[in-house]
Amino acid sequence: MSDLSVTSNNGASKTISSETVQAFAQGLRGTLVTPDSADYDTSRTIWNAMIDKRPALIVRCAGTADVLHAVKFAKAQDLLVAVKGAGHNIAGNAICNGGLVIDLSHMKSVRVDPITRKAWVEPGATLSDFDHETQAFGLATPTGINSTTGISGLTLGGGFGWLTRTYGMTVDNLLSANVVTADGRFVTASATENPDLFWGIRGGGGNFGVVTGFEFQLHPVGPEIFAGLIVFPFDQARSLLNQYREYVKTLPDAANVWAVLRKAPPLPFLPETIHGKEVVVFACFYNGSATEGEKLIAPIRNFGMSAGEFVGPMPYTAWQKAFDPLLTPGARNYWKSHNFTSLSDGAIDTVLDSISTLPSPHGEIFIGLFGGAESRIPEQATAYTNRDARFIMNVHSRWETAQEDKVCIAWAREFFQKAAPFATGGVYVNFMTEEETERIQGGAYKSDVLTRLTEVKTKWDPSNFFRMNQNIHPLIR
């Protein structure tokens, strides 16, 4: 192994001797990957194919001891550090150029106590890993809608999905966490131990340390739920969305319905004549019996003349994977997101105009329904505080080749600008792209929350060691 050119935490270049690197590697139970390693390119590849960064060192951690070792080494060598869970973050902060990546993706343990309804989860676990273990006991906690998403990044940003209206955000169900801090200590964060840190990690992202273990509260869910898709042609879209916004006003907490606008994929229950054409999809979920579920979705069937549907009782784990084929790794992705307290006529007009000009068959706009349990949590209880949002709208531009970058990014940005007058100004931090740092203040975090987050950051990471994130800067003292 030759000497390595690396990037320091302040962005400067320096060299680390091969002897220093080898000594570091010998202290690991996991594996150290360098640019000379045969699996280097595989190890630095993450979900969003737009991200193409070349770290100097990738530490595939086998456990907490490896995380401690990596943090202390990076601190001693003044290295830029990124932390990777499942690598699903849209901004690509799981990887850095020239620095050290703490790769947690091999730490996947999920342990469930069905009596206390608690789960202890390592940070490399995906939602699929989590659901596989908890559903063996008919239990779950609110997470996301794509099974390949990592539990770590999802949780640290807030976390929401089909169960959020019933049981709150993912962070509302976090009971404690084990954290390796910037100074190389191992601490527990909970309501009674380091409560300021516990508050901060529940929505403040990876700004305060590396979480090596999560403790979640679980709830009775499934193993069979009622869910599915009802698809309508796009020429009915305005009427459909007008009826949808009225329909959800009286929806019980145990139910959730999202609206998705996109070109129809070749689903077997849709006629071939509609494949590739713009459609409105209502994704329906009910944590209860099929009989009650059928009653709840009956009004949707009367919104218009549907093109097809696939709805009924199914395993919760199957529904959690239903959108995976549309979110496979290897595609290029760019997102823009807004929060809304209501779907105004102007917001609906903007959505319809944008869908009519979709530049790629893989792009979509989804409208996620909030409210219910998550809106009843006190705003100051967690660092995630955009609880006034009734809808979160994500513009998901997705395409295959670099040649399409300009037009697909421009499409998302144009929608974002046109929709802004109808939105709250708030944004879900996990949906923010790398260049959206100006939205941290006032968007992801309201001013009083950001002030408190800054205080937590200053206490736990005063040198901004953990900066590969939607960064909260510490106070300079």
Strand order of the largest sheet: 17-14-16-15-19-20-18
Radius of gyration: 22 Å
Biggest β-sheet, characterized? 7 strands, antiparallel
Shape: globular
Q: What's the CATH class of the largest domain, please?
A: Alpha Beta
The CATH architecture of the largest domain can be given as 3-Layer(aba) Sandwich
The SS-based structural class is alpha+beta
Distance between the termini: 40 Å
CATH topology of the largest domain: Vanillyl-alcohol Oxidase, Chain A, domain 3
Q: Which blocks of ≥5 consecutive residues have pLDDT under 50? A: none
> Beta-sheet strand percentage?
15-25%
Mean pLDDT: 96
The amount of helix comes to 25-40%
List how many beta strands DSSP finds.
20
Quick structural summary:
With 477 residues, the chain is of the alpha+beta class.
Structure in words:
The chain has 477 residues and is an alpha+beta fold. The protein folds into 3 domains: 4-103, Uridine Diphospho-n-acetylenolpyruvylglucosamine Reductase, domain 2; 110-221 and 450-460, Uridine Diphospho-n-acetylenolpyruvylglucosamine Reductase, domain 3; 224-437, Vanillyl-alcohol Oxidase, Chain A, domain 3 (3-Layer(aba) Sandwich). 26% of the residues lie in helices and 24% in strands. It is built from 13 helices and 20 strands. It has helices spanning 18-26, 40-44, 64-77, 127-134, 151-157, 164-167, 195-201, 237-247, 290-301, 316-320, 345-355, 405-419, 447-460, and strands at residues 4-7, 13-16, 31-33, 57-60, 81-84, 100-103, 110-113, 118-121, 139-140, 174-180, 186-190, 210-217, 219-220, 224-233, 255-263, 278-286, 308-315, 332-340, 364-369, 391-399. The strands form 5 sheets. Strands 17-14-16-15-19-20-18 form a 7-stranded antiparallel beta sheet. Helix 8 packs across helix 11. The two termini are 40 Å apart. The model has no long low-confidence stretch (mean pLDDT 96).
